[in-house]
Amino acid sequence: MENSLPFHPLRTPADLDPLVAAIGDARIVLLGEASHGTSEYYTWRAAISRRLIREKGFRFMAVEGDWPDCFEVNCALKNTDSPYQGAAQLLKTFDRWPTWMWGNWEVAALVDWLHAHNRHQPLAERVGFYGLDVYSLWESLQEIMRYVQQQGDGAETAAQQALRCFEPYGNDPQEYAEAVAFVSKSCQDEVTAMLQALRRQRPRAAAGPGLEHETAFAAEQNALVAVNAERYYRAMLQGGPASWNVRDGHMTETLTRLLDLHGPDSKALVWEHNTHIGDARYTDMYRNDTVNLGQLVRQMYGRSQVFAVGFGSYEGTVVAGRKWGAPLETMPVPPALPGSWEDRLHQQLPDQNALLLSAELRDQPALKQPLAHRAIGVVYRPEFEQFGNYVPSVLPERYDAFVFLDHTQALHPLPTVAQQNVPPDMYPWAE
């Protein structure tokens, strides 16, 4: 990388023209981030999303968030005839640590824009907002009970049995995981039976267009969350890549279901951490038998249909916690590790933001070697970052484009009061 790299200056949304052109007719656009607490990652992803919604007809956003919370946002965005109290109020639904991931002013601005955009669209063309993640076991079970009690159908018995199976563990997934690790009895059969029952009921309940159809889909999705969350928590104590692979497999399955729900011409925007959207085969994750959504959707839909955009910065500030469940802090992000992608881009582009397109980089043999690439999670300790916050990556293959932001600022969280019960520390170091 001693030679200068081709790049496009990035100052305003108009400078995204080369990226929009490169995306072309891709059906799935994956928008990453190198942390969950950096303002510019959110604002640039929002700028890209607005352009793709307006100019290329993208139908929905799918994010690294829980299904029940995101579906509440989705319903508010699509039911534009109901009173709308504003995104800042709506996003209080994200009240589980780390609350700032989706409960922040940057997301609030985008949600308000989406609501205004949808007001002028027919219901079938309104942009949706969905959660891909697998953590909401108890919340999803509660949503299913509400749904089946309203429907009064045959799935209620199966849902009650599943809920009773988990009751001895309260809402503590760590307690459940530890309990089933030492006994043969788990709740796997109960959640599977519940999912099957909801699937048998769905064709009748889902008849007709609009949000009623999505509500039936959401009930089935909550049951799928319960099935895969139960698998996730059992795998969690095994160590290794098992739980990560369950999680990214679930997110990929959910994305596929959403594309099928919206029809063969639908297009999806995905917001997740770089460690999920950047193809794992071009990192050291691959050697550890770890897969991710970016790899899986490329394999399923073909590279021409998937466009991944990675993000990174040289230094700045970030919102994170010093340990799992700790109060959020604004922390310094030190200058990137010497020899890393971020460091080398900074040497070429000091005090500049830039867009790099992989198609313009791949003919340079020197770029085929993996270099360290920063990844900050919701847990972060700047003083130890050199010991674990870098993923060796072949950048032009891991992503189709890369947004480099030389200096970034911390995200602006909403004043959300987090639930007292914090789920266990289930994130790998980088995420």
Automatic annotation (TrEMBL):
Single Gene Ontology BP annotation: response to antibiotic
SUPFAM superfamilies to which the protein is assigned, alphabetical: EreA/ChaN-like
Name assigned to this protein: Erythromycin esterase family protein
Stored InterPro entries: Emycin_Estase, Hydrolase/PRTase-associated, UCP036794_erythomycin
Pfam (any one): Erythro_esteras
